[in-house]
Task: structure prediction
Amino acid sequence: MGGLRERLKDGRALLLALASLASVSAWAEDAWKYSEEADKMTSKVTKFATLISTSSLSLGSPYQGANYAHIHVRQRAGSAPEVMLTINKGQMMCRSFKPCAIKVRFDDAPPVSFSGTGSSDHDPTIAFIQGASKFIAGASKAKTILVQTEIFHNGVPIMEFKPNAPLVWGIPPKPKAK
Result:
Protein backbone atom coordinates (compact mmCIF):
# COMPACT_ATOMS: atom_id res chain seq x y z
CA MET A 1 0.00 0.00 0.00
CA GLY A 2 2.95 2.31 0.65
CA GLY A 3 3.81 2.50 -3.06
CA LEU A 4 0.25 3.40 -4.01
CA ARG A 5 0.02 5.96 -1.21
CA GLU A 6 3.21 7.68 -2.38
CA ARG A 7 2.06 7.46 -5.99
CA LEU A 8 -1.30 9.03 -5.09
CA LYS A 9 0.36 11.80 -3.04
CA ASP A 10 2.81 12.56 -5.86
CA GLY A 11 -0.12 12.66 -8.28
CA ARG A 12 -2.06 14.97 -5.97
CA ALA A 13 0.86 17.40 -5.73
CA LEU A 14 1.23 17.43 -9.50
CA LEU A 15 -2.50 17.86 -9.93
CA LEU A 16 -2.64 20.84 -7.58
CA ALA A 17 0.30 22.46 -9.36
CA LEU A 18 -1.33 21.98 -12.75
CA ALA A 19 -4.67 23.23 -11.45
CA SER A 20 -3.06 26.56 -10.62
CA LEU A 21 -1.86 26.87 -14.21
CA ALA A 22 -4.87 25.59 -16.15
CA SER A 23 -8.15 23.78 -15.86
CA VAL A 24 -7.67 20.23 -14.63
CA SER A 25 -10.37 18.96 -16.96
CA ALA A 26 -8.46 20.41 -19.92
CA TRP A 27 -5.25 18.78 -18.68
CA ALA A 28 -6.93 15.45 -18.02
CA GLU A 29 -8.90 15.61 -21.26
CA ASP A 30 -11.60 13.81 -19.26
CA ALA A 31 -9.90 10.53 -20.10
CA TRP A 32 -9.02 7.41 -18.22
CA LYS A 33 -5.23 7.36 -17.78
CA TYR A 34 -3.70 3.88 -17.91
CA SER A 35 -0.35 2.93 -16.40
CA GLU A 36 1.68 0.00 -15.14
CA GLU A 37 4.16 -0.27 -12.32
CA ALA A 38 6.55 -3.15 -11.60
CA ASP A 39 7.14 -4.11 -7.98
CA LYS A 40 10.88 -3.76 -7.37
CA MET A 41 10.93 -6.76 -5.06
CA THR A 42 8.91 -9.27 -7.10
CA SER A 43 8.97 -7.77 -10.61
CA LYS A 44 5.20 -8.40 -10.75
CA VAL A 45 3.27 -5.73 -12.64
CA THR A 46 0.37 -3.78 -11.18
CA LYS A 47 -1.97 -2.11 -13.65
CA PHE A 48 -3.81 1.15 -12.98
CA ALA A 49 -6.56 3.21 -14.56
CA THR A 50 -7.30 6.65 -13.13
CA LEU A 51 -10.04 9.18 -13.87
CA ILE A 52 -10.20 12.72 -12.47
CA SER A 53 -13.49 14.44 -11.63
CA THR A 54 -14.69 17.17 -13.97
CA SER A 55 -15.08 19.77 -11.23
CA SER A 56 -13.57 20.58 -7.88
CA LEU A 57 -15.38 19.78 -4.65
CA SER A 58 -16.55 22.84 -2.70
CA LEU A 59 -15.61 21.91 0.84
CA GLY A 60 -15.51 24.11 3.92
CA SER A 61 -12.48 25.13 5.93
CA PRO A 62 -9.78 23.86 6.10
CA TYR A 63 -10.36 22.00 2.81
CA GLN A 64 -11.26 24.85 0.48
CA GLY A 65 -9.49 25.40 -2.82
CA ALA A 66 -8.87 23.02 -5.70
CA ASN A 67 -9.99 19.59 -4.55
CA TYR A 68 -10.63 16.92 -7.14
CA ALA A 69 -11.91 13.39 -6.75
CA HIS A 70 -10.27 10.46 -8.52
CA ILE A 71 -11.40 6.96 -9.36
CA HIS A 72 -8.56 4.45 -9.42
CA VAL A 73 -8.82 0.89 -10.67
CA ARG A 74 -5.87 -1.23 -9.60
CA GLN A 75 -5.01 -4.83 -10.32
CA ARG A 76 -1.98 -6.64 -9.02
CA ALA A 77 -0.82 -9.71 -10.94
CA GLY A 78 -2.73 -12.74 -9.74
CA SER A 79 -5.24 -10.68 -7.73
CA ALA A 80 -8.75 -9.39 -8.29
CA PRO A 81 -9.11 -5.74 -9.28
CA GLU A 82 -9.73 -3.06 -6.65
CA VAL A 83 -11.53 0.27 -7.05
CA MET A 84 -10.58 3.28 -4.96
CA LEU A 85 -12.16 6.70 -4.63
CA THR A 86 -9.76 9.42 -3.51
CA ILE A 87 -10.02 13.14 -2.85
CA ASN A 88 -7.19 15.65 -2.62
CA LYS A 89 -8.25 16.84 0.84
CA GLY A 90 -11.05 16.24 3.29
CA GLN A 91 -12.19 13.23 5.28
CA MET A 92 -14.41 10.60 3.73
CA MET A 93 -16.31 8.79 6.45
CA CYS A 94 -15.10 5.33 5.36
CA ARG A 95 -13.13 3.47 7.99
CA SER A 96 -11.35 0.14 7.82
CA PHE A 97 -13.44 -1.01 10.80
CA LYS A 98 -16.78 0.62 9.82
CA PRO A 99 -17.92 0.63 6.17
CA CYS A 100 -19.56 3.68 4.64
CA ALA A 101 -22.24 4.09 1.99
CA ILE A 102 -21.16 5.06 -1.51
CA LYS A 103 -23.78 5.67 -4.18
CA VAL A 104 -22.79 5.51 -7.84
CA ARG A 105 -24.83 6.35 -10.90
CA PHE A 106 -23.66 5.21 -14.31
CA ASP A 107 -25.21 7.37 -17.04
CA ASP A 108 -29.02 7.47 -16.66
CA ALA A 109 -29.31 4.17 -14.78
CA PRO A 110 -30.67 4.22 -11.22
CA PRO A 111 -28.05 4.80 -8.50
CA VAL A 112 -26.27 1.68 -7.26
CA SER A 113 -25.33 1.31 -3.59
CA PHE A 114 -21.81 0.20 -2.77
CA SER A 115 -20.04 -0.21 0.52
CA GLY A 116 -16.74 1.54 1.07
CA THR A 117 -13.91 0.82 3.47
CA GLY A 118 -10.98 2.93 4.50
CA SER A 119 -7.37 2.17 3.74
CA SER A 120 -5.24 0.05 6.07
CA ASP A 121 -3.25 3.15 7.04
CA HIS A 122 -6.49 5.03 7.91
CA ASP A 123 -5.95 7.76 5.30
CA PRO A 124 -9.37 9.53 5.17
CA THR A 125 -8.80 10.65 1.58
CA ILE A 126 -8.95 7.05 0.31
CA ALA A 127 -12.00 4.76 0.18
CA PHE A 128 -12.00 1.26 -1.30
CA ILE A 129 -15.26 0.57 -3.14
CA GLN A 130 -16.43 -2.97 -2.41
CA GLY A 131 -17.82 -4.88 -5.40
CA ALA A 132 -15.07 -3.90 -7.82
CA SER A 133 -16.29 -6.15 -10.64
CA LYS A 134 -19.77 -4.58 -10.48
CA PHE A 135 -18.25 -1.07 -10.51
CA ILE A 136 -15.92 -1.92 -13.40
CA ALA A 137 -18.84 -3.38 -15.40
CA GLY A 138 -20.75 -0.10 -15.00
CA ALA A 139 -17.73 2.11 -15.71
CA SER A 140 -16.95 0.04 -18.81
CA LYS A 141 -20.16 1.32 -20.43
CA ALA A 142 -20.56 4.78 -18.85
CA LYS A 143 -20.07 8.22 -20.31
CA THR A 144 -20.99 9.83 -16.98
CA ILE A 145 -20.26 8.53 -13.50
CA LEU A 146 -21.67 10.25 -10.42
CA VAL A 147 -20.31 9.25 -7.01
CA GLN A 148 -21.66 10.33 -3.64
CA THR A 149 -20.35 9.60 -0.14
CA GLU A 150 -20.27 11.46 3.15
CA ILE A 151 -17.40 13.86 3.77
CA PHE A 152 -16.83 15.00 7.35
CA HIS A 153 -18.60 18.31 8.03
CA ASN A 154 -19.41 18.67 4.32
CA GLY A 155 -22.46 16.47 3.75
CA VAL A 156 -22.69 14.09 0.82
CA PRO A 157 -21.43 15.97 -2.25
CA ILE A 158 -21.75 14.55 -5.74
CA MET A 159 -18.48 13.95 -7.58
CA GLU A 160 -18.96 13.98 -11.34
CA PHE A 161 -16.78 12.15 -13.82
CA LYS A 162 -17.28 12.45 -17.59
CA PRO A 163 -14.76 10.26 -19.38
CA ASN A 164 -14.49 10.81 -23.12
CA ALA A 165 -14.56 7.00 -23.46
CA PRO A 166 -15.67 4.22 -21.12
CA LEU A 167 -13.18 2.32 -18.98
CA VAL A 168 -11.31 -0.44 -20.81
CA TRP A 169 -10.20 -2.98 -18.23
CA GLY A 170 -9.07 -6.54 -17.82
CA ILE A 171 -5.95 -8.58 -17.44
CA PRO A 172 -6.18 -11.60 -19.72
CA PRO A 173 -5.91 -14.91 -17.90
CA LYS A 174 -2.55 -16.60 -17.91
CA PRO A 175 -2.26 -19.48 -20.40
CA LYS A 176 -2.79 -22.87 -18.78
CA ALA A 177 0.21 -25.16 -18.62
CA LYS A 178 -0.10 -28.23 -20.85
Remarks:
- Residues 2-161 form one domain.
- The chain has a mean pLDDT of 86.
